[in-house]
UniProtKB/TrEMBL annotation, chain A:
Keyword Repeat on entry: no
Chain ranges of the Peptidase S24/S26A/S26B/S26C domain: 36-106
One Gene Ontology CC term in the entry: signal peptidase complex
Keyword Protease: yes
Free-text function comment from the UniProt entry: Catalytic component of the signal peptidase complex (SPC) which catalyzes the cleavage of N-terminal signal sequences from nascent proteins as they are translocated into the lumen of the endoplasmic reticulum. Specifically cleaves N-terminal signal peptides that contain a hydrophobic alpha-helix (h-region) shorter than 18-20 amino acids.
Protein name stated in the entry: Signal peptidase complex catalytic subunit SEC11
Transmembrane parts of this sequence: 20-40, 162-178
From TrEMBL, chain B:
Role, per record: Essential component of the signal peptidase complex (SPC) which catalyzes the cleavage of N-terminal signal sequences from nascent proteins as they are translocated into the lumen of the endoplasmic reticulum. Essential for the SPC catalytic activity, possibly by stabilizing and positioning the active center of the complex close to the lumenal surface.
Organism: Cardamine amara subsp. amara
Keyword Cytoplasm in annotation: no
Entry's Gene Ontology cellular component terms: signal peptidase complex
Official protein name in the record: Signal peptidase complex subunit 3
Compartment(s): Endoplasmic reticulum membrane
One biological process term in Gene Ontology: signal peptide processing
Bilayer topology annotation: Single-pass type II membrane protein
UniProt record similarity statement: Belongs to the SPCS3 family.
Short name of one Pfam family: SPC22
Length: 180, 167
């Protein structure tokens, strides 16, 4: 019975410390990723500084799977800008181009109509029931730059969540079994 | 330290970093291109000018558009999106921009063109202020790169106006 006690002791003494160290390093990695993301949100002034293009409505300019970098400034919204907006009640952002702008004289409030380059008609079909125009608070940012293909990782993980679980499982296994 | 896993990881990290660096340089090289696009727009005809049942003015017109945008294309350009907007002001709105026509130019050869077309999108005002209205026609272009920073600019042409009476 003595060796059971020995193994239990060795398990208790060594593993816990190693486990804690590894848990802390994992926590550090996750928190630094979060810090970078929040810093990007601050710098670009937008709630989501990077978005993935999900539909083909802006082809051939932006294809499904491209990543767009957004920036939001207090500059007025003008025709031709590619903006990312949320429709009330839906949480998937849409990336389309502004085709009509009507800006009020005194208040600076603005009515905006958008359209995807590859769509036949404007976005009124996508807006909420009875809504004819977008306003400034719907718009999350302007697209200023892009990287092709990199967004496919996010699309695959969203549409086939099993891959996300496999990936996280494998990562967890790697962390536990690595010696440093 | 020399297992397959470590080596694959180091190689992948280096490859991704190098790729990101190349993309950044490609985008940066766009700064050095010399650009002088030109365009001319004429209004050939005002086809229809009416106050619609919802109380807003609507105009239908035919435009003659001649443009040379070949100098905008660099080796890092995927396409140029060009559109024409009518800009005017009304008592209620300090600025109105209504897009009348747009096109995608995929290559440099297509960038020098002349077409005659009626407006692709409806020119509708918020209200009925368009009689006798002076407006600018701006040709905007949006250069979409193969990778990196997009940039846009415009040419403003003024001196256009709508007739004083509905027709």
């Amino acid at each position: 019975m003595g060796w059971i006690g020995e193994t239990v002791d060795s398990i208790k003494s060594i593993q816990i410390r190693q486990l804690l160290t590894q848990a802390i390093s994992l926590g550090m990695i996750v928190t630094s990723a979060l810090i970078i993301w929040k810093a990007l949100m601050c710098v670009t002034g937008s709630e989501s500084p990077v978005v993935v293009v999900l539909s083909g409505s802006m082809e051939p300019g932006f294809k499904r799977g491209d990543i767009l970098f957004l920036h939001m400034s207090k500059d007025p919204i003008r025709a031709g800008e590619i903006v990312v907006f949320n429709v009330d009640g839906r949480d998937i952002p849409i990336v389309h181009r502004v085709i009509k702008v009507h800006e009020r004289e005194n208040t600076g409030e603005v009515d905006v109509l958008t359209k995807g380059d590859n769509n036949y008609g404007d976005d009124r079909l996508l807006y909420a029931e009875g809504q004819l125009w977008l306003h400034r608070h719907h718009i999350m940012g302007r697209a200023v730059g892009f990287l092709p293909y990199v967004g496919w990782v996010t699309i695959i993980m969203t549409e086939k969540p099993i891959i996300k679980y496999i990936l996280i499982g494998a990562l967890g296994l790697l962390v536990i079994t690595s010696k440093d | 330290m020399h297992t397959f896993g470590y080596r694959a990881n180091a190689l992948l990290t280096f490859a991704v970093t190098a790729l990101a660096f190349i993309c950044a340089i490609a985008s940066f090289s766009d700064k050095f291109s010399n650009q002088n696009p030109s365009a001319e727009i004429q209004i050939l005809n005002i086809n229809r000018f009416q106050k619609k049942s919802h109380g807003n003015d609507e105009v239908s017109l035919t435009l003659d558009i001649a443009a040379d945008l070949q100098s905008l294309f660099t080796w890092n350009t995927k396409q140029v999106f060009v559109f024409i907007a009518a800009e005017y002001e009304t008592p209620k709105n300090a600025l109105n921009q209504v897009s009348l026509w747009d096109a995608i130019i995929p290559t440099k050869e297509h960038a020098k063109f002349r077409i005659q077309t009626s407006n692709k999108y409806r020119f509708i005002d918020q209200g009925h202020n368009l009689r006798g209205k002076d407006f600018n026609l701006t040709l905007h272009w949006h250069v979409m790169p193969k990778t990196g920073k997009m940039f846009a600019d415009k040419i403003v042409m003024s001196g256009y106006s709508l007739p004083d009476a509905y027709r």
